[in-house]
Each structure stands twice: as C-alpha cells, then as structure tokens.
Amino acid sequence: MKKATLLSLALSTAAAAASGAGFSLFQGDTTGCADAAGSIAKGGRAGDLYYNPATMSATTGTVVQVGSFFTRPHLKVDGSNAYTGEKNRTAAKKQWFAIPHFYLTSQVADDLWVGLGLFSRAGLGDKFPGGWPGRYNSTKVEITTFDAAPQLAWRATDWMTVAAGVTFQYFDVTLEQDIDAAGIAKMRNYNDPSPSPYDVHQRLRGDDDVAVGWDLGVMLEPVDRLHFGLAYHSQMDLNAEGHARYTVPPAVAAAYPGCFGNTKVKADLSEPAYVMGALAYDFTDRLTLGVNVTWSGWSCWDKIEIHEEQGFLPGHDTLLSQKKWNDVWRYSVGGSYKLSDEWTLLASFTYDDSPIEPDYCDYIVPADTREIYAIGLSWERGRWAIDGMYFFEHINDMSTHARVADGMMEGKYADGFSHAFAFSASYRF
Average pLDDT of 83-88? Predict the structure, then answer.
C-alpha cells in the first residue's frame, strides 16, 4: 500500500508531460511548434524566446504576443491479471487541454532587448474510468505549471547575439488512485485488478514554493544566409509539499483505526535541464530549411525520496523509489517557405525519444517514443502577425511488465496519438 501510494506522489508532483519526452512540454510558441529549428536559430516572433532568448534580437520595437496550444491525447492500456491471466483493455478519457502563453519583447537600445515570457514548460492530464484494472497505480492526474521568465539579450556584434535570464516556476498537482485495503488484509490477492468493494480512494493535492532556474542563449549568423542558435535552460529543483485525503469504506475504517488518515507529505524533486541547438539556412529569399537537436537531462530522475509527516503504516515514514530514467535526445527537421509577402508556410518532422525504462514505467506518464508531423501557416501585415499550426503525434506502443506492488500489469500502452492545434496573435508597437 505504501509503495503504490508514495510512488505515485513522486511522479505527480514533478509536473508532468504532454507531447514531450518524459513530462516535458515543447509547445511554447505557435511557429516553434511548426518549425523549431527556425525558432531557435533565426527567430522572428516574440514567443521564440521560449526556446532561445537570443532570438529577441530578430524583433524590432515592442512586440506583444498571446496565444494557446490545444491538444487532445488518445491512449489505451492493455493488461492482464497477474493472478488469473484475464486480459483487459481500457481507454483513457478523451479530453482537450489548453496551454496558453504570453510574450513581451522590447528593443530598449540599438543593441539591447528585454523580454518576458509567461508559459508552461511541463504539464499533464490523464483520467481513467473508475474501477479500471490499473486503478491501484493511477486513476487521474492533473498537473498545471506556470513559468515566468524575464530575459535580456545583447547584440555583441553584427553577427552574434547573446542572452541570459531567469525562470520562476510554480506548479499545482492533483493525483487520484485507489488502494487495495482488502489485499493488505490478505482477504484476497494484493492489488488484484478484479473489482473490490473495499478500495480506499486517495486524492493527493500539492504545490511548490516558487522554483528558480536560469537560461542562456546565443544566436549567430557567421556567414550570409546561415543561422545558428544554441540555448540552455537549467534544471529546476522543486520542494513539493501537499496533503493526502482519503475516502474510506466504513468496513475498512473499522478494521484499520488510525490508518488512512489525512496527512502532509513532501519530497525534493527535479525537472531536467535542456540544451537546444539548431541550424537554419536560407536557400533562397523564400525558402529556409533547418535541423534542431534538443537534449533533456532526465537522468536527474534516478531516484525519488519522499517523507510523510505521519506514516501511512506505523514506523514507515520514508520511501526511496528507483526511477533510473535516461538522458534523451529530440530531433527535428523543418523549414519555412514564403508564399507571398504576407503568407508563410511552415512544416517539420520530429522524433522524440522517451527516457522511461520499461522496468520502471507507470500509468501516470504512459508514453513512449513519439513521432510528430507538423504544419503551420503565418500571416503578417504591418504591425500585425497571426500564426496557426496543426500537428499529429504518434506515440509508439510500449510494453509494461507486471509489478503487482505498484499496481502495474503485464501488457502495453497501445494506440497512442494526439491531435493538436496552436494559434497566436502578435502586435508590434
């Protein structure tokens, strides 16, 4: 009971994923979703500072950009009962999630820019039907993060801009799952996926004091038509604190007096560092093609240690949970083509590797390696710019191994994909 409960808390309070390796988000800007290489190496929109703050030097005057990314993931879980061998398939609830953003950049001198980004660099939403076979691992998770990033860029030469800034992050998380009280009492096989009237429902809610990270960026044009961008976003260290609330059947409350009481929990967690690099080349005045490589330092999720104010079971107030996630790479190729003075077409393909080891996977972050196909269209006239994009994300099937203590079944994540749209509007003063 204790391991399943606190392992889930460890994963949830870190702020989780939609459309990125682990629980990362790379959907900070509309044109960046459609052509990340161009956003990192060349810029042109205020929102490109999400990827590389040095791109502010590609804007003039004061620019305000607002927009949002919308995604609807689909996922099914195949599993088998470790005790009976019975097969099952469950679909996660289909729902839309919005990821809004706001950016402001201003050229305050010939060679100096300041900017502010309000966005989310991580987030997740998943919900499974009540009583589903994997309920002892997860039934629902909602994570919302909010990042505020003031940035400064300096054009050191005609061909080089450097930038630096800080990011302040706040997150809020809700996680729900069931606990097999009958299994704990040895009234039946522990964490048997079959229905039980003695399940205890657990709801975890927590947040973090503001975490602080830092950002660096450089943008180069060493020769005519060749653009290079490199950015670093530091690891974020989170001090998670929250509460556990329980809905306990009367028979369980009578059998376990003093257990399943509301309590405080806390854990020290980390969100990974990112390194983003890109090259873009203007083959003609209309056509630009580029490549992007992003490294995510997910090895920071090697293990999680969680502490309870009072133990769920007497004498047990600490859990050491092994994660053993891997550092991973994200690759994309893309480009833009100016259809006219006002309209530009963007497109890209992205391969996004997963850091999750099958031996340590769970239903809270049920995703494997992804392939993303994106297309976008931009319109610009005078002081206004409007951007829109669509992408289809295919999530590869991933086998899961039975870990009865954690509520995991032998099976796989299957038929994973998502549709996504993004829209933004910019105005230059």
Answer: 94
- Domain total in the chain: 1
Closest CA to 253 of 310, 318, 179, 188: 179
In terms of pTM, does the model score above 0.70?
Answer: yes
Question: What is the distance between the terminal CA atoms of the chain, rounded to a whole angstrom?
Answer: 58
d(CA 411, CA 5): 21
What's the token pair of residue 313? Answer: 């079971």
Q: For 311-350, what is each residue's pLDDT tens digit?
A: 555 555 655 566 778 899 999 999 999 999 999 999 999 9
Give the domain extent around 64.
2-428
Place of tokens 């203007």: 282
Per DSSP, the three-state class of 123 is strand
**Taking the mean position of all CA atoms in its chain, how far away is CA 34?**
18
Q: Are strands 62-80 and 410-428 parallel, antiparallel or unpaired?
A: antiparallel
Helical (H) or strand (E) element with 170: strand 160-180
Whole-angstrom distance, CA of residue 42 vs CA of residue 59: 11
Q: How far is Cα 404 from Cα 409, in angstroms, rounded to an integer?
A: 7
Number of H helices, E strands in the chain: 5, 22
CATH of the domain at 213: 2.40.160.60
Main-chain dihedrals φ then ψ at residue 7, nearest 5 degrees: -60, -40
> What's the gap between Cα 204 and its chain centre?
19
Distances in Å between the Cα of 23 and the Cα atoms of 265, 332, 346 are 22, 18, 26
Q: Per-residue DSSP letters for 17-45? A: -SSSSTTB---SSHHHHH-HHHHHHT--S
